[in-house]
Amino acid sequence: xxxxxxxxxxxxxxxxxxxxxxxxxxxxxxxxxxxxxxxxxxxxxxxxxxxxxxxxxxxxxxxxxxxxxxxxxxxxxxxxxxxxxxxxxxxxxxxxxxxxxxxxxxxxxxxxxxxxxxxxxxxxxxxxxxxxxxxxxxxxxxxxxxxxxxxxxxxxxxxxxxxxxxxxxxxxxxxxxxxxxxxxxxxxxxxxxxxxxxxxxxxxxxxxxxxxxxxxxxxxxxxxxxxxxxxxxxxxx
Length: 237
Description:
By secondary structure, the protein is of the alpha/beta class. Helices cover 47% and strands 11% of the residues. It contains nine helices and six strands, in the order E-H-H-H-H-H-E-H-E-H-E-H-E-E-H.
């Protein structure tokens, strides 16, 4: 825990960590599946969709054909999972579903936690989302004034590409070990730790962590517990 004493900034993943993707998108998934008379449940569809979205992001970075952007990989993943489940949709239907990505809401304990942390750390968004999309979500749905917002578009690759974490630390003006990556995505914490960040795994979904030497400095269930560890244990000093 002594390694956290030097931390000056918390870098937050947005999608699935601050923003509740499943809770926000499930109503639109249910509506869409019902319109298609689909057999697959909304829960299973979401699990397939989320897993495929990550594959799309990994492929996008590995192929280096030009950074497609977060929403485009989400769109491609949606089309793939439709096909996987034997469904077809017009471009208009896909576009209509994708509009639901503009209406994401944060987990309920996030804002109170940020309030408790704001006088102790710089609070930074470090996200796979594009700048305009992030600006929209932060202004219209999270309603929080972060100190800085860093989009992977500046690097042209999705997390966990090492260039993202290194470039973000420089953008903040800190050494990598002065940044604590806070994410509910274990690959994100692993990627940051491999670049010298400290790491906090917010295990909202009860999932195992990667089998790797780059383990998180702390694992918590939500932001409420994150604050308890960082503030009440006075690890920020």
